[in-house]
Amino acid sequence: MQNEPVDVLIIGAGASGAAIAWSLLETRMRILCLEQGPRLEDRDFPSRDDDYELARYGKFSCDPNVRGLKQDYPINADDSCITPVNFNAVGGSTINFLGHWPRMKPSDFRTKSLDGVGADWPVDYETLAPFYDMNDRNTGVSGLGGNPAYPDYKPELPPIPIGKLGQTLAKGFNAMGYHWWPSDVSILSQDHDGRQACVNAGTCDLGCAAGAKGGTNFTYWPMLENAGVELRTEARVREILVDDSTGFATGVLYHGSDGQVHEQRAELVVVACNGVGTPRLLLNSTSKAFPNGLANRNGMVGKNLMFHPLTGVAGVFDEPMLGHEGPMACSILSQEFYETDPNRDFVRGYGLHSGRSTTPMTYALGGYGIDNPIPWGAEHREIMDNVYPYLAGLTVVSEDLPEEHNCVTLDPDLTDSDGIAAPKITYRLGENTRKMLRHGEEQAKEILLAAGAKKVLSKNDDKVWWRAGWHQMGTCRMGDDPETSVVNGWGRSHDVKNLFIVDGSIFPTAGAVNPTSTIQAMALYVGDSIKTNIETLFD
Amino acid sequence: MWADMQRSLLDAILDELIPPSEDGRIPGAGALGVAEFFPTAEAYAPDPMGAVQTILNAVSGEFVALPRDEKVAELKRVEAACGQAFETLIRLAYMGYYSRADTRPYFGVGAHPIHPTGYPVERESAALMDQLTAPVRARGKAYRDAK
Ligand SMILES: Cc1cc2nc3c(=O)[nH]c(=O)nc-3n(C[C@H](O)[C@H](O)[C@H](O)COP(=O)(O)OP(=O)(O)OC[C@H]3O[C@@H](n4cnc5c(N)ncnc54)[C@H](O)[C@@H]3O)c2cc1C
Ligand code: SF4
């Protein structure tokens, strides 16, 4: 079945797809977005149920292999120490993301020239700064201006409460003489733009039933649909089609909600399927011109997969820390160990995040992102009564370096519910990252003790959190050299001149901060570059 | 769902997995009726009832009457012998116990569905924030230039 052709076809209605659609609105081109997931209705958010925590282990798990819904694609992560997690619906993974909103730092864009590792980005912090600002305005960002760890900027809304836990940890950082700052968050600290302020429910991973979190289902999509962008849901793209004679993309084949395969033609195709979904789609799009997958003449599609490997340390304090009150991920963030220091045995660095503590069931089952239940019996009682309420933790979030052997390929057997080959992840932790995590654990222990912890709980087992593949980057990296990168400095495929990629797969390096504000700033930048280069776009 | 004997055996096992507090304020998982969660737990484990049955079959027939320390020893033996089923039993017991609204307040967490009310948390005053961040600001710029 064929549909009327459009000017711009965006695949994926998550963070990046929404941002580029907004950027292209003013061109008045006809924009269509195909999204494999549904729209979520208010009743779909489990936090309105008595047993809300259960949803974390079923239909609202962050792990598509656990959810196993029709719109999900399974991911084979048997060859990885981290499994990618996501959400597939209008809003994408911003449905269940935690709204932590740090920007990348100037040095993140220049790791090769500064530290001899990774790759320099074709853009720098200064170029991106106005797009960060633009995206923050569209999203609603809370935080405290004046953070000395960044060039000057000021979030529009005041910070969310850092809470007792944040205040306690801040004192520890101060006692050590270390940097920390209240986290920037895409969570409303006050009513804003017709949206409601955060109610400190603490279950941001279960979707925000208040609409206070900056998921694109609440921010961009209402604006976009009002402005006439068409959003076709339950439409899973099977492959991107190319004209073998011109090498241009002509459109896509997708499985519609009616169970039929449809063809959709377009002048320009934008892929925004996240760092695993995007290489998967390109690798599934084979043709005479691209037998190894679309835009993959140099074999780089799927290579250099980066996560932010992490581990955590928790302190047990004398008083209850009330860690379940307030947005889940974000209280304060220290970037004391972010930049390279020649006195350490690793390059680049990591952030120390004070995640708030989880709710009782999740703690008993091992914590968020971990499957390792606490002991049963008398010890169980002791931990839940005398440890759990008194916990404040620090998470070490490390910069992953790009390594070609860490990659996304297609699984030869596994498929999604439409019979499309599923992705397979091959990933191992680099030695640099391992050293970083060890260093981070030691520092975190000292800080917790300085903050007054009477005991510190740390695993010391050299393992990273399993369900922590929240951030998926690098698998279609951008660069000026067509031999070593998939897209150019403004997101256009080197091989297919009317194909753009805008999600985290274009990141040449990962930084050590949550990526979404940068992903969206980059999507806006790519949109802007399309507008600037419109006359010669396909040359 | 359960024959009486099986139910009392399961309750006794559950009361060892998550025992009551010594002062009796917090009930154990058996007394709380967590057994009723298992038949509803298909979404959280492949064969919840199969796992429970494996454990019930493996535990000594005398279990209910044993003194506490012997119950614990018996469960450790079963844990070693039936690793996978025991793991499933533990996970589901924790889920059944902590998903109940009435258990959360024992650990300082609200019984209410978390939306729409959430928790009232005051934002720190500007003065407190100033005071807390003063040492950080005093240290000055904390990032590398990358020109
Ligand atoms: C639990 C969790 C917590 C997180 N917390 C944070 C945080 O605090 N801060 C932060 O910065 N980031 C966080 N992230 C990461 C953040 O959600 C992602 O970085 C961001 O959403 C990525 O944007 P994207 O557009 O690349 O992909 P997504 O937002 O995932 O959107 C991709 C969309 O593409 C659709 N799609 C994929 N393949 C196809 C296809 N073939 N056809 C049609 N549609 C398709 C998917 O259904 C999905 O809706 C978190 C993620 C998770 C899962
Ligand atoms: S804590 Fe705030 S942001 Fe998070 S889900 Fe609740 S209301 Fe939304």
Describe the fold and architecture.
The complex is a heterodimer of chains A (539) and B (147). Chain A has 539 residues and is an alpha/beta fold. Chain A folds into two domains: 1-40 and 69-97 and 104-140 and 215-306 and 468-533, 3-Layer(bba) Sandwich (FAD/NAD(P)-binding domain), CATH 3.50.50; 153-208 and 310-399 and 430-463, 2-Layer Sandwich (Cholesterol Oxidase, domain 2), CATH 3.30.410. Helices cover 22% and strands 17% of the residues of chain A. Chain A has eleven helices and 16 strands. In chain A, strands 1, 2, 5, 6, 7, 8 and 16 form a seven-stranded mixed beta sheet that branches. Chain A starts with 5 loop residues before the first strand and ends in a 7-residue tail after the last helix. With 147 residues, chain B is mainly alpha-helical. Chain B has one domain. Chain B is 47% helix and 0% strand. Chain B has helices spanning 4-17, 48-58, 68-81, 83-98, 126-139. In chain B, helix 2 packs across helix 4 and helix 3 (68-81) crosses helix 4 (83-98). At the A-B interface, helix 5, strand 4, helix 8 and helix 9 of A face helix 4 and helix 5 of B. The site of iron/sulfur cluster has 14 residues of chain A, from loops.
Short synopsis of the structure:
The complex is a heterodimer of chains A (539) and B (147). Chain A is of the alpha/beta class. Chain A has eleven helices and 16 strands.
**Uncertain runs of chain A with pLDDT below 50, 5 residues or more?**
none
End-to-end separation of chain B in angstroms reads 71 Å
Which quaternary structure do these chains form? heterodimer
Quick one: which chains have the greatest interface? Answer: A-B, 77 and 54 residues
E-strand count of chain A: 16
Strand-residue fraction of chain A?
Answer: 15-25%
What's the pLDDT, averaged over the residues of chain B? 96
**What structural class results from the helix and strand content of chain B?**
mainly alpha
Find the CATH superfamily of the largest domain in chain A.
Answer: FAD/NAD(P)-binding domain
Number of domains of chain B: 1
Radius of gyration of chain A: 22 Å
Shape assignment of chain B: elongated
> Compute the gyration radius of chain B: what is it?
23 Å
The largest pleated sheet of chain A is described as: 7 strands, mixed
Estimated helix fraction of chain B: 40-55%
Strand content of chain B: under 5%
The coarse silhouette of chain A is globular
What is the number of beta strands of chain B? 0
Query: If helices are DSSP runs of H or I spanning 4 or more residues, what is the number of helices of chain A?
Result: 11
